[in-house]
């Protein structure tokens, strides 16, 4: 018997049979493990452990028996058991078990491989594209697995899949005329991914700002946006006409401040330059700048005041926190310099009725000139702040 075993193992096709048997057994064992997990809430721990050991023993015995039959070595009991198991797997029931097991393993393998792809903590175009393509590729491969498994199951139970696919193609052509919007969504999603127009993690506004937020999900059919208040907007890709991306490559802070017409403009510009350079020189914020501040000067003579403006070229998605910090510092600096920032005023007419006046003691006003510009400030966040954009508009 030993000589026969050595002679059989010298043939390459015998090794291929053994490998196929081991892979099929592993697939069936993994499928059983997945089903046993579903029983965990309903079965005791000791009983579940016993079932797992029994299932492992059955799989090992089956693998050994089928391998002995594949090698064709007449080992008592194992050879007969392998013949019975092989003949049973040749029938439709055995094929169904193998198909379902392989589909489950492929499904879990895709999830495991996808979880290993980590874009990284730094926000850049590579991380955005990697996050986007990971979700799209994962969902596409899962659809392919389901289709292949469905066709294999139909073949296993005796249905001619070729004829069925021909009928489905004719039916799909008829349905396609009624699902033009779905086809348009898929085509638009494909070009969004191909051209890297935007991706997961970008801050965008679609259709001239009607909807805006952080992109949480992107696939071939829809784009999911998370607004500042937590609302999730699901937008079909076919309905997206224009996209405004606020976080691609670099961003800009449009830092503006208004002063009254009675203010000293040169002094106000000096304060604006000082605050801009101080923010640029602060180690806490310096890493967010891509270039030095650009003070443009007087940009508008409005009805309520004179507008002064500076521009900061910064890292994407840091412009909102930088703008908030600039507003805090410029207000303190203007108060210290005695420059008034205009605010709306109204004249109220009381008519001819008598007016009663009551005198009250004034409370002492706080000395705004003693505020410190370098007070503790929040770290730059990466969430979108549409209020700052509305203020700029």
UniProtKB/TrEMBL annotation:
Keywords: Cell membrane, Membrane, Transmembrane, Transmembrane helix. Residues 141-180 form the Mechanosensitive ion channel transmembrane helices 2/3 domain. Residues 361-393 are annotated as: Disordered. It is found in: Cell membrane. Residues 253-341 form the Mechanosensitive ion channel MscS C-terminal domain. It comes from the Bacteria. Residues 361-370, 379-393 have a biased composition (Basic and acidic residues). Belongs to the MscS (TC 1.A.23) family. Pfam families: MS_channel_1st, MS_channel_2nd, MS_channel_3rd. Residues 182-245 form the Mechanosensitive ion channel MscS domain. The chain crosses the membrane at residues 12-29, 50-72, 92-118, 139-158, 164-183. This is Mechanosensitive ion channel family protein. The keyword Transmembrane helix applies. It is a multi-pass membrane protein. InterPro entries: LSM_dom_sf (IPR010920), MS_channel_1st (IPR049142), MS_channel_C (IPR049278), MscS_beta-dom_sf (IPR023408), MscS_channel_2nd (IPR006685), MscS_channel_C_sf (IPR011066), MscS_channel_TM-2 (IPR011014), YbiO_bact (IPR045276). The lineage of its organism: Bacteria, Thermotogati, Deinococcota, Deinococci, Deinococcales.
């Amino acid at each position: 018997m030993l000589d026969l075993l050595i002679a059989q193992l010298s043939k390459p096709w015998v090794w291929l049979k053994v490998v196929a048997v081991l892979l099929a057994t592993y697939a069936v064992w993994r499928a059983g493990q997945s089903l046993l997990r579903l029983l965990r809430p309903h079965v005791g721990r000791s009983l579940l452990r016993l079932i797992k050991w029994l299932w492992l023993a059955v799989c090992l015995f089956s693998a050994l028996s089928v391998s002995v039959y594949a090698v064709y070595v007449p080992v008592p009991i194992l050879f007969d058991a392998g013949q019975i198991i092989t003949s049973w797997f040749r029938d439709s029931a055995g094929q169904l078990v193998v198909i379902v097991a392989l589909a489950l393993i492929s499904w879990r393998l895709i999830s495991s491989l996808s979880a290993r792809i980590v874009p990284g903590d730094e926000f850049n175009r590579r991380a955005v594209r990697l996050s986007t393509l990971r979700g799209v590729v994962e969902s596409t491969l899962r659809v392919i697995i389901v289709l292949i498994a469905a066709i294999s199951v139909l073949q296993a139970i005796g249905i001619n899949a070729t004829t069925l696919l021909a009928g489905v193609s004719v039916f799909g052509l008829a349905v396609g005329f009624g699902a033009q919007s779905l086809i348009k969504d898929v085509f638009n999603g494909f070009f969004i991914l191909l051209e890297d127009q935007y991706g997961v993690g970008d801050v965008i506004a679609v259709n001239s700002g009607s909807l805006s937020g952080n992109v949480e999900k992107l696939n071939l059919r829809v784009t999911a946006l998370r607004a500042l208040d937590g609302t999730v907007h699901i937008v079909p890709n076919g309905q997206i006409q224009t996209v405004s991306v606020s976080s691609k490559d670099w961003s800009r802070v449009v830092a503006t401040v208004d002063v009254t017409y009675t203010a000293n403009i040169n002094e106000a510009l000096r304060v604006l330059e000082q605050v801009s350079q101080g923010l640029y020189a602060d180690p806490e914020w310096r890493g967010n700048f891509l270039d030095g501040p650009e003070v443009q000067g007087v940009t508008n003579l409005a009805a309520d005041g004179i507008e002064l403006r500076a521009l900061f070229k910064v890292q994407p998605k840091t412009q909102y926190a930088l703008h908030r910090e600039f507003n805090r510092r410029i207000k303190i600096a203007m108060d210290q310099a005695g420059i008034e920032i205009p605010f709306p005023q109204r004249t109220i007419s009381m008519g001819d009725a008598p007016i009663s006046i009551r005198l009250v003691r004034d409370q002492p006003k706080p000395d705004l000139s003693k505020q410190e510009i370098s007070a503790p400030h929040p770290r730059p966040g990466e969430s979108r702040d549409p209020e700052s954009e509305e203020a700029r508009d």
